[in-house]
Amino acid sequence: MNIEKKRITRGALLSASIGLLSGTPAVADTLLFPVLTSNPPNVITIVSVVNNATATPPQLRYTYRYKDAISAGAPNIGGTCNTTSFARNTFDRDLVSFDVSGTLENGEALFGDVDVYGGGFGLGQSGPKRGYLLVTHANASGTQTNAGGNVLLGGEAVILDIASGAAWGMRAINDSTLEDYNFTAAGIESELTSGGLKPFSFFPPDDWTTRFFVTPVGSNMDSSNLQSVARLAGSLVDRSSTTYTLPTINPSITCTGAVDLEDLMDSTTRAAVASTGGWGFFQSIGSPAIIYKLDYVLNDPAYGGTNNNGYLLSGPGQP
C-alpha cells in the first residue's frame, strides 16, 4: 500500500467507520450489500466480509450486479444490470476487506492482510457505476453451496467520496430462512413491501440534495432484473403544515438505481419548500425494495463544507 493510499484509508475510512463498526454485523450464508457505488478514483466502496465459521466451505463466491450510473445524460434507473462473478479462497473465522472500485490496492485485500485469496475482489470497471454485491459460500469448484446455518457470514460497507470528503455506510442484509440468492419478506426485515409507506423529512432543497437508493429484492438476485416503482405518496407537507398535492410521478427502478427527491416533485411544490424543507411518505410499488435515504451538501461554508447522512429508510419502524 503506497503512502498516499494509506493516508486515505487511515484518515477517511477510520473517521467514517466509527459509527458503522459499533453494531453487530449482519449474519447469513448469503449476504446482500444492496448499494455499491464506484467511480475510480473519486468514489469508492470498501466492503468487509466476516466468515465466522469453522470447517467452512473453502471458497466464497462474489457476484456483482452493476450498470452505468448515467445513461444518455440522465440517471440510469431503468437499465438492466450486468454480472461479474468469481470465487476466492476463504478461511475459518476470516475477515477480508477490499475496495470495489480497485482504487486502493488494485482491488486486492486491504490493511496488511497476508492470506492468499487467489485473486483480487474489485469490480474491474471504469467510470461511474451503481450496483449490489452478493457473497455466498462455495465449494472447491466455486459453485454456491449451503453451509448449514444462517449465522456464518457477516458484512459491512462504507462508501467514500474521496473527491468531496464524505462517507456513509451500511450493514449487509441476509435472509434468515434461506442460503441461496433469494431474499424474501419472510426472511428479512429491511425491505419495504409493495404499497408500503415510510415517512421521511428533508432539508431545504436549495441547500441540500436528498437522494433515494433503491434496490428491488426477490428471487434469483444473481441474475434477475427485478423492478420497483419508487415514488412519493400523494403529497408533501412544509414546516407550516401546508400540504402540497403532487402529480403522479412513478419512476421505475430496474435492478438498482438512485432517484433524487427533486425529480419526484413538480416545480410548484419545489418552489414552495425550497428554503424550508418538509416531510412526506415514500412508497414502492412492485417488487419489495431495500431503500436508503441520503442527504448531502457540497462545499457549503454554512454547513462546514461537505457533509452527508445516509440511513436505511426501509428498515423496521412505524408505520
At a glance:
This is PEP-CTERM sorting domain-containing protein. The chain has 319 residues and is mostly beta strands.
Strand % is 35-45%
Give the overall shape.
globular
Between the first and last Cα atoms, what is the distance in angstroms? 47 Å
Structural class: mainly beta
Number of domains: 2
Biggest pleated-sheet summary: 5 strands, antiparallel
Q: What is the element string, with H for helices and E for strands?
A: HEEEEEEEEEEEEEEEEEHEEE
Total count of strands: 20
Number of helices: 2
Rg over C-alpha atoms, rounded to the nearest angstrom: 20 Å
Keywords: Signal
Organism: Thiorhodococcus minor
Signal peptide: 1-28
Protein name: PEP-CTERM sorting domain-containing protein
Describe the structure.
- The protein has 319 residues and is mainly beta.
- The protein has two domains: 3-171, no CATH class; 197-312.
- Helix content is 7%, strand content 44%.
- It has two helices and 20 strands.
- The chain has helices at residues 3-17, 267-273; strands at 26-28, 30-38, 43-51, 59-68, 70-71, 74-75, 82-89, 94-99, 129-138, 153-161, 166-171, 197-202, 209-216, 227-238, 243-245, 252-254, 257-260, 278-286, 289-300, 305-312.
- Strands 1, 3, 8, 10 and 11 form a five-stranded antiparallel beta sheet that branches. Strands 12, 14, 15, 16 and 18 form a five-stranded antiparallel beta sheet that branches. Strands 2-9-4-7 form a four-stranded antiparallel beta sheet, with no helix packed on it.
- A hairpin with a 4-residue loop joins strand 19 (289-300) and strand 20.
- The longest helix is centred in the first third of the chain and has 15 residues, at 3-17.
- The N and C termini lie far apart (47 Å).
- Residues 1-28 have low confidence and may be disordered.
- Residues 1-28 form the signal peptide.
- It comes from Thiorhodococcus minor.
- This is PEP-CTERM sorting domain-containing protein.
- Keywords: Signal.
